[in-house]
Every structure is written in C-alpha cells, then in structure tokens.
Amino acid sequence: MSSIVATWAFSGPGVVTAAGILANGGGALDAVEHGIHAVELDTRVTSAGYGGLPNALGRLQLDAALMTDDGRIGAVMALEGFRAAVPAARHVLDHSPHSILGGDGAAAFATGHGMVAATDTAQLLSPHAKKRYRQFRNGEISPGPHRDHATMPHTDTVGMIARDADGRLAAGCATSGMQFKAPGRVGDSPIVGAGLYADEAGAAVASGDGDQMLRFCIAFLVVEQMRGGEEVQLACEAAMRRVHAADPKCQAAVTGMSPDGGVGAAATHGGFRVVRWRAGTGAEDVQNEEARAVSETTWKHSCV
Ligand code: ASP
User: Fold this and answer.
1) Under 8 Å between Cβ of 22 and 168
2) In the chain, what are the domains?
3) Considering the chain, what percentage of its residues have pLDDT values greater than 90?
4) Which pLDDT tens digit goes with each residue over 41-61?
5) Quick check: CB of 175 below 6 Å from ligand 1?
6) Under-50 pLDDT residues of the chain
7) Any bridge partners for residue 67, and if so which?
8) This model's pTM is above 0.70
9) Closest CA to 187 of 248, 125, 245, 145
10) Ligand 1 centroid – CA 282 distance (Å)
11) 297: helix, coil or strand?
12) 174 in contact with ligand 1, CB cutoff 6 A
C-alpha cells in the first residue's frame, strides 16, 4: 500500500503534494522529491530552502539528499545560489557518476542541468530571514539549532519517506542547516546513513542537532534494526534510546518506514511531530501526530 511519512508539522503541504503524485500512479522518488521541494519553497518554513535562515555571512547555504531502496543516491551540500536544493540532489542522482557534490561544484552542476541561480544573493533571503539575520548581526540572537518559533513551531529538517504502489521506497531530506552556521558547515541531513537511509529492509530520515547526531548514524541504525527483524516503531525508539543514553542533552528525532509501508517515529525529547498519509484516503487527508519520546523532557531551542 502506498504510504508517506515526513518530519515536523510544517511538512503537511509537502505530504499533500507527494500524496497527489502517488495517488496518480507516480513513483516514490518523484513523490519525495516534489514533496520536499514544496516545503523548500514555503517561506513559512525557516529551516529549508527559500525562507531558511542564512549562515554567519548572511548567505543561504542548503543541504539535500535523496536515496532509493535500490541504492541510488544524490546529495548536495553547502549549495549556494538557489532557493531549493532537492532538485539539485535529484540531478546528481540521475545524471552524475558521483553521489554527493558540494559547494561551487554542486552549484555548477545544478546550473549545468538547467537550474537558474539567483543573480543577487539577497534574492535568496525571505524578508523574515533578512530580519533574523540583522538581529543576529546586532547580537540579539546567537547561532545554534534553528528552532525559530517566531513563524512556526518546531522548524527543522524536512525529511520524507514514500512507498509507492509498486512497493518501492525512497527517502529524502533538505535543510538550510543550523541558523547562522559557520560557512561550509554540513550536518547529518545530506549524509547517507545519518540523515537518511533506504534499502530493501526499510527507510529512515532524521532531524535534530546534526553536529551531535552524526556519530550515531541514526537512519542506518533504524534500518539495520528492521533488517534484524525489529518492528519499525521499536527500531525508532531503540535508536533514540541509544542517542539519549550516550548524550542526554542531544535532541534527535527519527521516522522510519518498513517495506510494507508501516510507519514508526520517535525522539529523544517530547514535541517531535510527524505527518502521515496512506493510500485509500484523499491526498489532503494527512495525519499529524506527536511521536513517542524516550525522555520526559520536551524539545528545547538548543542542544547545547
Ligand atoms: N539535522 C539538521 C542539521 O543539523 C537540521 C535539523 O534537523 O535541525 O543540519
């Protein structure tokens, strides 16, 4: 059965887009790419694509990745000059002999495949992002995990997994990364095994403080437990328990999908939400649920 799950409530419109693609017979990879792209272009979302908060130099620097259950990968990191990164990740998946392209090379590759770069970097910042950057420069806000509750609660990486009618799985994610990060900083999101993973045993996508989460290879950890026979919800919870036991301050979240389209989700702290859709319901009929947390405390603005 076709199925979709995505991180955070703000991904709802993206899930509707992806559900429309699956409902019309489209494939999982197209659904995930276009679903994520819809979130990247939503200016209310301050943590991915246009609307995302910039790095310490005031430049929007994006990460995105896609992975299919038959092992195709495309990722871009520290991409500058564009309002969205997931279309560039798709071009890498489809057209590059490489799996990940970064920085200027990623930008040149995207341009070479028809993506139009902005002529002026200021065009890449939404009015809200410009205002927040001015506040950062004035010392009113500090760098750090970008939970910018001024516009929407729990803004974070958009991660999405889809299973299509043929039973294929695809996973993807996109983020503008930590707000006001050091130029060139890359978190877990575009790293296969960390921010996303998919193979015949299932798929997973993660969100949270990438600098802290990278060492746990969270997405791979979840899928690896499913390969060992664990149920998807319990696999997500086990991964979050491992993170929390090693570093109780680290805020991490993950959602996973089993090969039959079953969904699980868990977080180290309360407040993580996922958006779900299943075939047999209308494309607009998405469900927004809070995931189980392995600790009593709730998700805070900063991991440090
Ligand atoms: N994991 C992403 C990063 O660290 C952002 C997030 O999900 O909050 O870049």
Assistant:
1) no
2) 3-293 (3.60.20.30)
3) 84
4) 998 998 899 989 999 999 999
5) yes
6) 146-155, 301-304
7) 73, 171
8) yes
9) 145
10) 31
11) coil
12) no
